[in-house]
Write a structure and sequence with these properties.
By secondary structure, the protein is of the alpha/beta class. The chain folds into two domains: 18-46 and 298-413, Lyase, Ornithine Decarboxylase, Chain A, domain 1 (Beta Barrel), CATH 2.40.37; 115-291, TIM Barrel (Alpha-Beta Barrel), CATH 3.20.20. It has eleven helices and 22 strands. The strands form four sheets. Strands 4, 16, 17, 18, 19, 20, 21 and 22 form an eight-stranded mixed β-sheet that branches. It has an eight-stranded parallel beta barrel with strand order 5-6-7-8-9-12-14-15, surrounded by five helices. The N and C termini lie far apart (55 Å). Pyridoxal-5'-phosphate binds next to β15 and α10.
Length: 414
């Protein structure tokens, strides 16, 4: 029996970047010129027009009534946060330092929320002083907040982060359902709501976050619907009307061969339906979605230079001046179970035909320092520029920069 030739899965097309005369363009500027502007390789470059395009897509697909928040941990570069703050409806921070960057960026504290388990007393004071919404993640945190609020005389605005009794199916990362360190179990929320009432905290609503990196519209819609229904049930025990209902996000981007972009249209339809229900069932509530990588991930690329080209027992290695220490996720060591290649190209040879499979490795003394494993790339030589796409989120700040003590990359907003 003969098998029909099977086509290998490919990376989804990268629609946000173009090339001219064989060279990748970043917001209309040739790659070599962007690199010269940076003054060094390696670097991260974030493309403003790609950020605009993504926000426009979301605005077109989601109902107007749904607020679009940027979850800053995906990329907290101050210039990028300022760019986003002027274009989205709110920012979600997860530490005192993110809060500082968000406030410096000019974001409206009233449209900001602060989530995360184990917020320190200093962070809680920062948050109440700034007047942002605190997503309460434990009973202790609620009591401490009431105490700090009374001591300082500033009201604490609170929402309850619920650990739902369901998961976001087929997610890259599950952050709700079962035992979790995030939020308060749905079963315990009625008791917490009574406690918040007794403490006299200003209750404003609920926050749910079921998971991340999801490419299936159907799963996202299901989680949004279940989140809404759960919040509606729990609202019966709330000490005040629900004014904000943050349904989380989880919108994924295609990183690996065979993955397809998320279809936003059904997600938009589902949210329109929830907006209609909320108008009747929770008339004071505004719905929020909070997105990180979906907003910024595709707009960023990581760029490094080929330093050496070596052949070892028939296999070619391109050794570059960047790697795992700058971009842990592309090396496959940031939560992936099976290592797969990010989309990688030779940015100054975009029109050249693909050659024999090569591996792109960094300068670190560990075999984990691998940016592309046996990938068919155009023939590249020392001096050429390797670019890693889908690198605008969980890159620079999610990587162990100090490991092996090589220089840091530069970050540019182009
Ligand atoms: C990490 C996180 C996000 C952003 O996740 P993405 O996968 O980047 O969209 C949003 N909300 C919360 C609560 C998070 O912890």
């Amino acid at each position: 029996m003969t098998e029909s030739p099977r086509k290998l899965p490919e990376h989804a097309p990268l629609s946000l970047f173009s090339s001219a005369y064989g060279e990748l363009q970043i917001n209309g500027i040739p790659l070599s010129r962007v690199v010269a502007r940076a003054g060094q390789t390696p670097l991260y470059a974030y493309d403003r027009s790609a950020l605009d395009a993504r926000i426009a897509e979301l605005r077109a697909a989601l109902p107007r009534a749904v607020k679009l928040h940027y979850a800053m941990k995906a990329n907290p570069m101050p210039a990028l946060v300022a760019y986003m703050a002027a274009r989205v409806d709110g920012l979600d921070v997860a530490s005192g330092r993110e809060l500082k960057v968000a406030l410096d960026a000019g974001a409206d504290p009233h449209e900001m929320s602060f989530a995360g388990p184990g917020k320190s007393e200093a962070e809680l004071i920062q948050a109440i002083a700034a007047g942002v919404l605190l997503n309460v993640e434990s009973f202790r945190e609620a009591r401490l907040l009431a105490d700090l609020s009374a001591r300082h005389g500033w009201p604490a605005r609170v929402a309850v982060r619920i650990n739902p009794d369901f998961e976001l199916k087929s997610s890259g990362m599950k952050m709700g359902g079962g035992p979790k360190q995030f939020g308060v179990d749905a079963e315990q929320v009625p008791e917490l709501l009574r406690e918040i009432g007794r403490l006299g905290l200003a209750f404003e609503g609920f926050h749910l976050y079921a998971g991340s990196q999801n490419l299936k519209a159907e799963s996202i819609c299901e989680a949004q619907l279940k989140s809404y229904d759960l919040a509606l049930r729990l609202a019966a025990d709330a000490p005040a009307p629900v004014r904000t209902l943050n349904l989380g996000g989880g919108f994924g981007i295609p990183y690996f061969p065979g993955e397809q972009p998320l279809d936003l249209a059904p997600v938009g339809d589902n949210l329109s339906h929830l907006v209609e229900r909320a108008a009747r069932e929770l008339p004071e509530a505004g719905l929020v979605v909070e997105l990180g990588r979906y907003l910024v991930g595709e707009a960023g690329i990581y760029i490094c230079r080929v330093v050496d080209r070596k052949v070892s027992r028939g296999h070619t290695y391109l050794v570059v001046d960047g790697g795992l220490h700058h971009h842990l996720a592309a090396s496959g060591n940031f939560g992936q179970v099976i290592r797969k290649n990010y989309p990688v190209a030779i940015g100054n040879r975009m029109n050249a035909p693909a050659g024999e499979p090569v591996s792109v490795v960094g300068p670190l003394c560990t075999p984990l320092d691998l940016l592309a494993d046996r990938m068919s790339l155009p023939d590249a030589q020392p001096g050429d520029l390797v670019v890693v796409f889908q690198s605008g989120a969980y890159g620079f700040t999610a990587s162990p920069q100090g490991f092996l003590s090589h220089p840091e990359p530069v970050e540019l907003l182009v």
